[in-house]
Design a protein that fits this description.
The structure is a single chain. The protein has 284 residues and is an alpha/beta fold. It is 42% helix and 15% strand. It has 2 domains: 30-127, Leucine Dehydrogenase, chain A, domain 1 (Rossmann fold, 3-Layer(aba) Sandwich), CATH 3.40.50; 139-262, 3-Layer(aba) Sandwich (Rossmann fold). It has helices at 7-27, 43-59, 74-86, 105-111, 123-130, 139-151, 170-179, 194-199, 244-247, 261-280; strands spanning 3-4, 33-39, 62-68, 92-95, 159-163, 183-187, 203-206, 224-227, 231-232, 238-239, 253-254. A hairpin with a 5-residue loop joins strand 9 and strand 10 (238-239). Helix 1 packs parallel to helix 10, helix 6 (139-151) packs across helix 7 and helix 6 crosses helix 10 (261-280). The structure holds ligand LMY7XDAE. The site of the ligand Nc1nc2c(c(=O)[nH]1)N[C@@H](CN(C=O)c1ccc(C(=O)N[C@@H](CCC(=O)O)C(=O)O)cc1)CN2 has 18 residues, from helix 2, strand 4, helix 6 and helix 10.
């Protein structure tokens, strides 16, 4: 039976470390500040933003929420980003994804000052990650690396398979596993022999967004299985991509949903906000 990877416990540790750093910064007169922009009424996004605010409060980070109506124009959104780029008490800016249809998300992300881009979605930061000389790591993939480390399983030399090629998770995830000396394969909707490739994985990361996508016949015995999916099953219950009940008996370690990768996303955001405050004050 697999050991459960406790995302809540690991994220609490990361947040506690960030809180210690905030204390030191505050003693030196610097309060890290995070601005979160949310556009529209997506209920899940509002829950995530609320949780980000709560994590900031618990960590000692100053936070500001900018909740804009769904009919906000691209120009209005860009003007807000510009204003926040210039605000000295704001060190991190993030735009909650997804934006409503009609808004150009990548243009908005590109308008964020790369030094304040705590999601690490800006092309400048993506490029720095690619060459392995980064300031921020994207929160979800960085959180996954912390979860794998918490198991004690070495990434170096392991066959790592990432299912999904999104800019937010799949691609940076593969890059971070590579930086940790994993042998990495990215699978996607056009991949042939998906089952066989997944079965070769010592570390399997699924970021597909489909309930029950990863079945037991796709998992090698003893594999570390990380579930980045955030879906609703046929009964409306929150679940990941992995058929947890079937895979649990095969894997050596597995993340639950909820309580696995999700809490890490927010914890790594706290860490990135602290890094941003240090960078902007010439400390890091
Ligand atoms: N600008 C960004 N937008 C989005 C990101 C991101 O990193 N930056 N990631 C996701 C959403 N997300 C954070 O924004 C996020 C998703 C889920 C969780 C989480 O803690 N999930 C819980 C369950 C929550 C629930 O009950 O619904 C868990 O897995 O235990 C945190 C953050 C897309 N947008």
């Amino acid at each position: 039976m697999a050991k459960l990877i406790d995302g809540k416990a690991v994220s609490a540790k990361v947040k506690a470390e960030a809180a210690e750093e905030v204390k030191v910064l505050k003693a030196g007169g610097i309060t890290p500040g995070l601005a979160v922009i949310i556009v529209g009424d997506d209920p899940a996004s509002h829950i995530y933003v609320n949780n980000k605010k709560k994590a900031c409060a618990a960590t000692g980070i100053h936070s500001e929420e900018y909740a804009l109506p769904a009919d906000t124009t691209q120009e209005e959104l860009l003007a807000l980003v510009k204003e926040l780029n210039e605000k000295e008490d704001i060190h991190g800016i993030l735009v909650q994804s997804p934006l409503p249809d009609g808004l150009d998300e990548s243009a908005v992300v590109e308008a964020i000052d790369p030094l304040k881009d705590v999601d690490a979605f800006h092309a400048y930061n993506v490029g720095r990650i690619m060459i392995g000389n980064y300031r921020f790591l994207p929160c979800t993939p960085a959180g996954v690396i912390e979860l794998i480390r918490s198991t004690g399983v070495e990434i170096a030399g392991k066959n790592c398979v990432v299912i999904g090629r999104s800019n937010i998770v799949g691609k940076p995830m593969a890059m971070l596993l590579l930086h940790n000396n994993g042998t990495v394969t990215i699978c996607h909707s056009r991949t042939k022999n998906l089952k066989e490739i997944c079965r070769s994985a010592d570390i399997l990361v699924s970021a597909v967004g489909k309930a029950h996508f990863v079945t037991a016949d796709m998992v090698k015995e003893g594999a570390v299985v990380i579930d980045v999916g955030m879906n609703r099953d046929e009964n409306g219950k929150l679940c990941g991509d992995v058929d947890f009940d079937a895979v649990e008996s095969l894997a050596s370690h597995i993340t639950p949903v909820p309580g696995g990768v999700g809490p890490m996303t927010i914890a790594m955001l706290m860490k990135n906000t602290v890094t941003a405050a240090k960078l902007q004050n010439g400390i890091a």
